[in-house]
Amino acid sequence: MLTFAHSTYFHDLLESFSAGVVICNIRGLVYAANEAACRLLGVSRRELADPAASAALVARADAPRQLARFLAAGIKHGQKPEPLAIVYAHPDGQSRRYRLSGSLLLENEKIFGILIEITDVTEIYRLHERDRDRLLGVQAAQKERIEGLVRFSLAVAHQIRNPLMVIGGFTGRLLRGKGEGDPEAEALSMILDGARRLEAVVRAVSDYARREEPAMAPCDLAALADRAFAEARESTGLAGRLETAGLGGLVVADAAMLTAILAALCANALEAAPRDGARLALAWERQDDGAALTVADNGPGPAEDVLPYVFDPFFTTKAVGVGMGLTIARRRAEEMGGALILTRGPGGGGLARLTLPGRK
Question: Which SMART domains does the entry mention (predicted)?
């Protein structure tokens, strides 16, 4: 592998990535990086290869301990690190927002290093900050942006879907023909992973653009909640417990829409709650003009500076994510004549509140 790592092909491959890429060995020393990574970190390749200089970069993150755990996951513990979002104090004096993801590098089933991908998401955050500053026009701007997205997404989904299927299909076929340890297999895996991510985006945009005509009827809320929670566990791969004490009764809603909304809220809560003890509580109360449902979790709760944007298309605080789940959930709630909001719970954690009309 070392011979391959020093080859012209290997370095040309690194430079082909638009994101920053840094490769460390099992001792935590950097032995390869592309120009994009050097530019994002504000250091040279020589400085990255210097243990003292590279270690100082950790202190530039707003959460150095989390970053150290991210690096230790692959280097010390042999585990694929969880994606991480950080604020980085760039040497030029500006703060940048980066998303980090890591992949273990294997040879003969042994870990010999970790590949770290650095994506600059600063402009996305700045865009949302500018939106937040325009408080007087935010509702009108959001409506216009959403309607524009609906029209645009239909055309984009149609144009992208077919070539994307070709890319993913042929990449998978080429990958199946590569033997274990083939240097091209990793590049093909990255292409296939990118195609799958894009497929998720196209699917989410298509779901959002599709207008639903609700069929409002009395629904068994307890049964829908169980089904939605099962879907959330399957989609996230996370375990947890759903508390539904006193949930018996009927609510007037479109059963499929309500299940999809609850599944999105449960998935969001599972991802926010502690991995070793996620607890969700679903409750409801009848109102004069309908019903109000709440989903509470035992996570840290959404940050105050994030709350204004949680329903914006493609907004996500996850390092890897589409950011359309809550957007689609709110749209379905509004199509049923209801409303969906997300706040911090009085005792901590996130609290989603869905109101539904008595009839439509």
Answer: HATPase_c, HisKA, PAS
Q: The domain containing residue 350 runs over which residues?
A: 217-357
Instruction: Judge contact between 164 and 198, C-beta under 8 A.
Output: yes
Sheet holding 95-107, edge to edge: 30-33, 20-25, 110-120, 95-107, 84-89
| Whole-structure pTM value | 0.49
Assign residue 28 a region: left if phi > 0, alpha if psi is -120 to 50, beta otherwise? left
Per-residue confidence (pLDDT) for residue 38, from 0 to 100: 93
Report the number of distinct structural domains present in the chain: 3
CA dihedral 253, 255, 257, 258 (to 10 degrees): 70
Give pLDDT tens digits for 122-142. Answer: 988 888 777 767 665 666 666
Q: What's phi and psi for 252, nearest 5 deg?
A: -90, 115
CB 326 within 8 A of CB 306: no
Distance CA 317, CA 46 (A): 33
Asked whether residue 230 falls in the same domain as residue 205, the answer is no
Q: What single-letter DSSP state applies at residue 336?
A: T
CA 54 vs. chain centroid, Å, equals 28
Task: Say if residue 26 is in the same domain as residue 93.
Answer: yes
Residue 296 Cα distances to 229, 293, 342, 345, angstroms: 13, 10, 10, 7
